[in-house]
Amino acid sequence: MPRGEGAWLGPVPAYRLATVRVCLAVVTLVFHVPKFNGLLDAYTLSAFHVAPAFAWIPTPSRGAGIALMVLQHVAAWSLLLGWAPRVAAWLLAGAGAYIMALDPEHYSHNAHFHLTLLALVGCASDRVPLRRLILGGDDDARTPAWPERLIRAQLAIVFFYAALDKALSPDWGLTGAVLTAPGFVPHAPGLAALQQLNQAVLGAIPAALSVATIATEGALAVAFVLPSLSALAIALSVGFMTYLEFMVRPGVFTWDVLIALLVLSPAADRGWSVLHSPARAGFMAFLLQLDWLRRLRWVTSIATSPSAAGEVEPAGAPGTLHLVSPRHRVFCGLGALCALPAVLPGPLLVALVLARFGGGFLAARGFGRWDDLPFLLLGAYLAFVCIERARAAARWRDSSASNGCAHAKAGQILDRSRGQR
Amino acid sequence: MPHATESTLTGWRRHVAVAFIALWLAIQLAMPLAQKLDLRAPHSPYRYARYSWAMFSRLVPRYEVSLYRTRAGGGPEPIPDIDHWVRGYRSPEPMPMSAIYTSEGEVLDRFSGLVTAIAREHRDGYTYVAAIRWTVNRPRGAETVEVRADATR
Fold first, then answer.
1. pLDDT digit string (tens) for B85-112?
2. Do B93 and B69 lie in a common domain?
């Protein structure tokens, strides 16, 4: 739980759950609904069925199947837009559970987790529809905390049992047999070489990596329930999920975990200051629409001397984006762009999900390995980070830039009115 | 301000929320454990199961299944309406499949039920066959299993 927020039944900023809902709705629209509607379509077109999980579950007719398919689409769009989102989320969760119960072949752990998240999002009463999330400048919406807490607990439960299962399974434990088996996904040239290297490492020390995987999942289970370890949980999860996606591309699981991590993020704290330059008004307006978690605080550059309002003193390069973190670290230009993903995780996740599943759609139709698009974006991001690091190292000798910003001293960027100095 | 009232749980809403949280956590903690552990098993109680968060926990068994019909002394013939019975199935060529979330018994039950249903419907004197060959990570049973159903006239 982010610091300063109360217990399970107390109020928390509503923007986290609203952002989780929007991201989850996008995954539902681009992956879950097409998959489950496909299962239902094939099921209702088949004359033979195995017995459902429970004898009392009715088998859908073709007409009922089509109606349920349409209903799932409507519910997914409704969830995205924030129109009756609780009804939509529970409808999707219920329909998914029904389809999974019809045939054991319909089950998957990943889909099970997705339905679980949908049910928990269906408990949220954030009242922040998509339009308000994007266009509203407000930061006062509050909602009961318990759905967020349950998502955290659910993450811990999933990773605890995943670790326990691997510890007990004869194919993991001290053998690591699963890690040496085929099943690694193909990648585009370049990434394929990295995958080969990965396979070689896994083949060389499977037992050690099996134990490391179990330990990682166990550590994640603990980190999810301890508020003081939220930052560790986010960092470890992002690393682990990125590796999992690279290694086996497990459908929706990676993205669902990354989306669920949003509940660990601070929200509505306006902890990041953005130096607003009139020359970049268009860009700033765009940035405002991406600030779904209400983390950015806008300060305007109006003079070259300390302002009367005590707001901020300007940087030396008009038009350059400047960000000041809650820990008073200054980022500018490329460095600020590199810091933005940490501040704007919701829109970033939506973009990555669209890249992954849009790319997957193209890859499945023989247009090349476009499903590697998220890794290409990640590679480009890391390249920017490396360039920025190199530039920061080169500037290191200049004491005026020791805060990471070449344009201004920290004291010029920081807002005295907030007592940051 | 609707948010002021919605964000603070009082009265019956509070009791409902607490009951829901307790029920949710109890189910989420107990169900995977019950699925994972078969306490009546003679050896290790651990088993791979659905609804237990057992992601990537075992080597996935893979198999090929050939669905065809045959007469006495004759060779395999395609089942003409196989796509009507199960959408996407083919006959008589082998179809590669995986038993990622199902047991060997469930696989056998599925195809046994399928050929029985087809034979019962057709009643054309053919024998309907599902030949299952485990190709990768074979379960304990035989490598090849055939289930047959006679479509008596």
1. 999 999 999 999 999 999 899 999 999 9
2. yes
Question: What is the token pair recorded at A57?
Answer: 């579950």
Contacts of B16 in chain A (CB under 8 A): none
Contact: B53, A248; criterion CB under 8 Å: no
CA angle A138, A141, A144 (to 5 degrees): 165
B7 vs A contacts (CB less than 8 Å): 11-12, 14, 142-144
| A321 closest CA partner among A281, A291, A266, A380 | A281
For B62, the 3-state DSSP assignment is strand
Q: How far apart are CA B87 and CA B64, in angstroms?
A: 17
Both B96 and B26 in one domain: the answer is no
Set of chain A residues whose Cβ sits within 8 Å of the Cβ of B17: 9, 144, 146
Number of domains in chain B: 2
Q: How far is A148 from chain B (nearest CA, A)?
A: 11
Per-residue pLDDT tens over the stretch A235-289:
999 999 999 999 999 989 999 999 999 999 999 999 999 987 777 778 888 888 9
Query: Are B104 and B136 part of one and the same domain?
Result: yes
Q: Does residue B102 sit in the same domain as residue B145?
A: yes
Q: Do B49 and B8 share a structural domain?
A: yes
Same domain, B78 and B111: yes
Overall pTM > 0.95: no
Specify whether B142 is located in the same domain as B109: yes
Q: Is the dihedral of CA A24, A25, A31, A36 positive or negative?
A: positive
Domain residue limits at B91: 62-150
Give ∠ CA A88-A110-B29 in degrees, rounded to 5.
Answer: 85
